[in-house]
Design goal:
This protein is α/β, with parallel strands linked by helices and about 120 residues long. It has one domain (about 5-115): STAS domain (Transcription Regulator spoIIAA). The chain contains five helices and five strands, in the order E-E-H-E-H-H-E-H-E-H. Helix 1 runs parallel beside helix 2.
């Protein structure tokens, strides 16, 4: 497994940290686990840490994940920060991660402290 979940009770943030090469199956499994965690807790903030990861998804897999994410009510109500390295090119993948972007409150950050600050605002 190339991801771990951390619960930050101080900031009421669920953080999922990805490391290494992430494929479609791992990304979908992490989303399922994250949705289950959200349903069991009163957290509405998510930090997706991709600093140590490289996503390997085909265009069709990106579309399939986008449809899946768009169907998850718990994710629609959540505020999501994506943390990436400056040189990562996944921003386009993140921006296109959902089919109904107007329903999702998300931003991309290069600084963990800035991401947490935004999540807390």
């Amino acid at each position: 497994m190339s991801y771990t979940f951390k619960l930050d009770s101080e900031h009421t943030v669920i953080e999922v940290e990805y490391t290494g090469l992430i494929d479609f199956d791992e990304r979908k499994e992490a989303i399922k686990e994250g949705v289950a965690i959200l349903q069991d807790r009163n957290y509405s903030r998510i930090l997706i840490n991709l600093v140590g990861a490289k996503l390997r998804l085909s265009n069709s897999e990106k579309v399939e994940l986008a449809h899946y994410i768009s169907e998850q009510h718990a994710l629609i109500e959540a505020k999501t920060a994506f943390l990436i390295r400056c040189e990562q090119t996944e921003r386009e993948e993140i921006d296109d991660a959902v089919m109904r972007r107007e329903k999702f409150n998300s931003q991309v950050f290069y600084s963990r402290s800035k991401a947490l600050e935004w999540l807390g605002s």
